[in-house]
Amino acid sequence: MKKVVSLFSGCGGFDAGFKEQGFDLIYACDIDSTAVDCYARNIDPRVYLRDVTSTEFHRDISTIGSCDIVLGGFPCQGFSKAGPKNVEDKRNALYIEMKNAIAVLRPQIFIAENVDGISQNFKGAYLERIVADFQQIGYRVEYRILDAIAFGLPQHRRRIFFVGIKQSIHQHFSWPEPTHFFKRRNGEFTIADIHPVEQSAHWQQTTLRAGDIQARPLPQQIQTIKDAIQDIRDLDIDIPDHRITHRWPSKYTTIFHTIREGQKLCNVRHASTSVYTWQIPEVFGSVSERERYILETIAKYRRHKKYGNLPNGNPLPVDEIERLSRLHEVQQDLENLLSKEYIKFKSGGYDLKGALFCSGLFKRPLWNEPAPTVLTNFHNPRYFLHPLEDRPFTLRECARLQGFPDTFIFTTSNTSQDLVSGYRLVGNAVPPIVSKAFADAVRQFLYQKEKAMQLLF
Questions:
Q1: Does 190 map to a domain?
Q2: Is the pLDDT of residue 196 over 60?
Q3: Per-residue pLDDT tens for 46-100?
Q4: Does 306 map to a domain?
Q5: Do 137 and 41 share a structural domain?
Q6: Which of 11, 76, 266, 398 is catalytic?
Q7: Is 402 a member of any domain?
Q8: If you average pLDDT over residues 250-259, what whole number do you get?
Q9: CATH of the domain at 311
Q10: Are residues 154 and 281 in the same domain?
């Protein structure tokens, strides 16, 4: 039985598929006590609360001595597109501890996971550094950006995966093959907008021979939110972790009623998917018809390049607001909107106040489409709403969207703190369905390697 060591293991999503495929999970660790407890209850008791920079962890690795596979989803906060990009963030270098552990354990193969932002931020410098560092300890490294939706997850979840093979091993590693159709979303890079069978091992615009395509099963239709959670819309169903915190301001209820399926609260995107704050006067304050027209004019034209190159929009001069709106003497209207805090004065012009995350808040995804990437903050309706219900997704709904079975229990109490911790564990996890795809690929890789060795002797 092949031995697996798992670092930064979280609740065990990355390990679940390897356990299912019969690998021996001899050691796992994480710095989060909640994650360690969840892993021990659901995956394997051989998990430890460890800081990978500690002497205790280094002693553990030295005691283990060797293994066949190392898994690791090293922390990504310094690379994530959802937060600040800090080149000096100490967590950016935690892969060094993973590298040092691999240098001791000398596995045949290792797999690491991170957010896809690592390939964009800091001009790709960390990506190059990671590959070079692992090469120095005797591993050749490949990486791919994969969207878990192509493996049957009802969620768009793009992550970068690194696969390192001992340089002394000449066996080729075949990356997991996509099984489901999907389309690229607006603004995404790297993955081409073609169906996944044609993307093949390099996940690019690789053209396969007709015989290869015929030999493979036809790709399946993507899974949707409805497919995953339609049977648990009611909160009174006796399903573990099917709960929400109920902790948000009462004014949110009015916002819930206004946001329709496929919409979001967003002033800075002029689109049918945007609901503007001035359309909810009960919460954000009333405006006159004239003021509303001015606000919508600014919203419509603020991102036009002729007014500047700021990535999230530019202030418009008074004369341009008058010309575009065909209104005269708007200065007093602008002063009124300033006092109501709908707009701000900047660089000689006026812009909408509050970018609202640029991409919007109170997002209500489409019921018959895959979910957006499940994040650690899904307990807070300010970020995401259930497509059909006036509430956030429950923890169990998030777990299903991540591909965890209902038998995988995240909480041990009814406290809000425990529930919020559960959302964090789910949002940080590698989906088990992706884990299983890699476990299958690793199992085949090791089998082919051993078969080749037998032929030599």
A1: no
A2: no
A3: 999 999 999 999 999 999 999 999 999 887 554 444 444 454 555 557 889 999 9
A4: yes
A5: yes
A6: 76
A7: no
A8: 96
A9: 1.10.10
A10: no
25 burial via Cβ count (<10 Å: 0-12, 13-18, 19+): buried
Q: How confident is the model at residue 121 (pLDDT cuts 50, 70, 90)?
A: low
Residue corresponding to tokens 């559960």: 422
Domain end, chosen from 311, 335, 352, is at 352
**The pLDDT of residue 9 is above 90:** yes
Tell which residue, 343, 359, 192, 354, has the closest CA to residue 263.
359
pLDDT at 208 over 60: no
Q: How far apart are CA 13 and CA 403, in angstroms?
A: 9
Residue 372, CA distances (Å) to 114, 178, 343 in order: 17, 19, 30
Distances (CA, A) of 352 to 145, 268, 298, 303, 336: 35, 7, 7, 11, 13
The whole-angstrom separation of Cα 415 and Cα 447 is: 47
* pLDDT at residue 210 tops 70: no
pLDDT digits (tens, 9 = 90+) for 274-307: 999 999 999 999 999 999 999 999 999 998 888 8
Quick one: CA dihedral 441, 140, 119, 115, positive or negative?
Answer: positive
Q: Residue 419 and residue 379: Cα distance in Å, rounded?
A: 9
For residue 318, what are the domain limits? 263-352
Whether 288 is covered by a domain: the verdict is yes
Percent of the chain with pLDDT over 90: 73
347, 437: one domain: no
Q: Please classify residue 228 by burial: count the beta carbons closer than 10 Å to its beta carbon, then call 0-12 exposed, 13-18 middle and 19+ buried.
A: buried
Classify residue 251 by its DSSP letter.
Answer: T
Domain finish residue from 310, 334, 352: 352
- C-alpha–C-alpha distance, residues 407 and 67, integer Å: 29
* Residue 195 confidence (pLDDT): 32
Q: Which pLDDT does position 89 carry in this prediction?
A: 53
Taking alpha carbons only, the member of 354, 203, 143, 144 closest to residue 265 is: 354
User: Is residue 124 packed enough to be buried (19+ CB in 10 Å), middle (13-18) or exposed (0-12)?
Assistant: exposed
Q: Is 76 a catalytic residue?
A: yes
Phi, psi of 24 (to 5 degrees): -95, 110
Are 170 and 302 within one domain?
no
For residue 345, give the 3-state DSSP assignment. Answer: strand
